[in-house]
Amino acid sequence: MSENKSHHNPNAENPATFTDLKLSEPETYAAGKEAVLVSAEHILKAMNPVRGFKALNQLNAYDGFDCPSCAWPDPDDDRSAVAEYCENGAKAISEEATTKVIWEDFFALHSVEQLSKLDDYHIGKSGRIGRPMYLPENGTHYEPISWENAFKIIAEKLNGLNSPDEAIFYNSGRTSNEAAFLYQLFIREFGTNNMADCNNLCHRSSAIALEDTVGIGKGSTTLQDLYEAEAIIIIGQNPGTNHPRMLSALKKARENDALIIAVNPLKEAGLQNFTDPQSIAGILGREVTISNYYLQIRVNGDMALMQAIAKFWFQFEDENPGQVLDQKFITEETAGFEAFKKHIIEQDLDILSKKCGIPLDKIKEIAEKLKFKNKIVICWAMGLTQHKNSINTIKEAVNLLLMKGSIGKPGAGTFPVRGHSNVQGNTTMGINEKTEDWLLENIEKVYGFVPPKKDGFDAVDSITAMHKGDGKIFFGLGGNFLSATSDTKYTAKALQNCELTVHVSTKLNRSHLVTGKEALILPTYGRSDIVLENGKPQFISTENSTGVIQNSKGNLEPVSKQLLSETAIVCQMALEVLGDKTKVNWKSYNENYDLIRDDIEKVIPGFDNYNERVRLKAGFYLPNAAREGKFNTENSKANFSVSVADTLEVKENELIMITIRSHDQFNTTIYGMNDRYRGIKDERRVIFMNEKDMAKRGLKKLDVVDLFNYYGNVERVARKFLVIPYSIPEECCATYFPETNVLVPINSVGDGSNTPTSKSVIIEVKKSVD
Ligand SMILES: Nc1nc2c(c(=O)[nH]1)N[C@H]1C(S)=C(S)[C@@H](COP(=O)(O)OP(=O)(O)OC[C@H]3O[C@@H](n4cnc5c(=O)[nH]c(N)nc54)[C@H](O)[C@@H]3O)O[C@H]1N2
Ligand SMILES: Nc1nc2c(c(=O)[nH]1)N[C@H]1C(S)=C(S)[C@@H](COP(=O)(O)OP(=O)(O)OC[C@H]3O[C@@H](n4cnc5c(=O)[nH]c(N)nc54)[C@H](O)[C@@H]3O)O[C@H]1N2
Ligand SMILES: [Mo]
What we know:
Residues 655-760 form the Molybdopterin dinucleotide-binding domain. InterPro entries: Asp_de-COase-like_dom_sf, MopB_CT_YdeP, MoPterin_dinucl-bd_dom, Mopterin_OxRdtase, Mopterin_OxRdtse_a_bac, Prok_molybdopt-oxidoreductase. It is a single chain. This protein is of the alpha/beta class. Among the domains are: 101-202 and 423-621, Rossmann fold; 204-416, Dimethylsulfoxide Reductase, domain 2, CATH 3.40.228. Helix content is 35%, strand content 17%. It contains 31 helices and 34 strands. Helix 7 crosses helix 27 (566-578). It is globular. The structure holds ligand MGD (2 copies) and molybdenum atom. One ligand MGD is lined by residues 172, 174, 198, 201-202, 382, 386, 419-420, 477-481, 484, 504-507, 509, 524, 526-527, 566, 659, 667-669, 737, 741, 744, 758.
């Protein structure tokens, strides 16, 4: 039987019907009792109450497992005895620990093409993958395969390449430190640096901006700093949905009199008010206000806003010499101040105000409120990182902190709030397509092989390489590459060009259904599963947003006996692919994770006594020079930057679209069809628009529209979205990803970071004709 795989649907476009949209007013507070009810509902749908209770009981507990949802840090010494997790952590567990499992009969019943016609929600809800599966060339259905044969196919294909650089490796941020370290080691010993990473789609711009300016590609703050801050600015981040436990920290900051400023085009519920589901007052519905000021900024207007604040601070410093800026810090610790000052003073405040869409008197009021505050934390996420000028925008945030000496002291600093629960750890472990001399030297010293020096492909470059035929095998350790990356049709074609696509996964996703000539699905454990190697229990470790390394040990019986851990998969693959040539003792690593940690300690700085310290109750902090006020930049200073506040301009018929997460999803995993805080129930194909932009186009509420992007003279279209009038600045609109990734042009990326510009997609909205 042969079939044409181009029929496989890369993004479940053109749905025949809408689900059943029910609209209500957007909410003005997050969490509360609904959060508790929704958590219970999700858990009970996926598993029996005993298993559910067992899982939740160990979530983020000292001796439990790290929540597989976001990378928000756990308190060091005052964890809740009741619930150190949030509604969305509970949903993540429901999704992962479900007792619904798919076996070979499921795949025999449904062809790959049929499965690809389902929406992402239904694909994901089919259940945990129970055993390894194989899609042969020209096959229509996945077939069962043994682990042994699966590794043989991988080895045969990888070893048959003309060059190791024809292999593309990807990693999503749920991988443990141990598995990530082994993964990069295998890839380098195999002979390439092609290790794309979800970080490329996420906080890469933050890492580069921070490395350049303050000498470390991570944030400098801890939870304690948030509690002690005099002011917290939250830009381009939606913690109510994506980092819900951050709200407890912000509540504490407010109790300590912090001034909180939210900067976001949308009025996100969690940035307004919070009712704490972990406290009696919260359960009774008592709300705490989160932000003192809410600036509904024009999309990508952030740099202009920050420059305007800086200009006011210079004026205030002239009026109050020595009181607004930290002159001592600026003189002793920084470089580039004079050039920065000159540039800012030259700016026209009215133009900056127009660019960010915030009235000048409002900006002045905020600048005034902040003028005598010296302990400032700036938090940000995807609203800053997924634009063309992201690196420069983040550098502008650093400028503000440097003016105030707000880094390297308690209560102050940079806080890029990380996404995946171990994405930061994966980079620390060496998953980076850009080579760093110290890492290569340490690998050579410890293992005795010479790792390749040439930089590899990141996520976007991997796609173009596969599209051109230069990448021939795709291997994903976790994630959903097709749906998470941009330009879905282009990326689908890239994957379909491959000889072989392999995914190490817990749940079925669209990347398993739009495949290379042959494909493998290798099922693995999730965080909540008990992992035994050689009959002995093992634990893994992860790094959170504040650089704390902690251990994590699942406590649930795995749903299948045929799963292998990510560590085992990497070790067994390495043995099969590299054979006698390898210099690494993969077998011992596979049997005892302490041995992996012993060697991580030798290769990666900051992990002294790893095995001992990882067993401490709350883990340990990695060294962070910027936190100590030391800047490991080339000039050993913290560097001011000069950037032109270029914002996105659109033509009369265009809008700037941001692609965001609903409250019921984790990236491409769709937990449910609701976005409770934004008043959306039972539908995802919606577009949030300003009423004036609707009127201009003759559109009414719930009209059905098609969305077009024409970047680079290519027509990209996402059909059938319902128009929702919403409070969002004019010329801006919002939709959910991954449905609209089809519109994000492959070659529209951040300058210097190569991250898809998922928050600045220029679209045209047209009424659907059929
Ligand atoms: N439950 C849940 N938790 C998650 C995830 C999830 O999908 N679900 N994903 C995880 C991952 S990998 C990540 S990276 C994080 C993502 O966490 P977030 O970055 O909070 O996620 P997004 O939904 O992309 O939201 C970006 C926010 O930025 C705003 N925004 C968009 N454009 C701009 C702009 O130009 N300027 C400003 N100031 N704001 C803007 C949007 O309105 C939105 O509020 O969350 C992590 N945690
Ligand atoms: N338009 C648009 N696109 C975006 C974004 C956006 O804001 N807008 N955000 C981007 C961001 S920030 C990110 S981080 C990426 C995310 O990109 P990815 O990390 O690639 O995507 P996920 O949806 O998190 O991956 C989900 C899959 O991971 C697998 N999985 C879950 N748990 C485990 C595990 O423990 N082990 C293994 N091996 N597999 C597991 C499951 O099979 C599941 O289907 O998406 C990016 N894409
Ligand atoms: Mo992310």
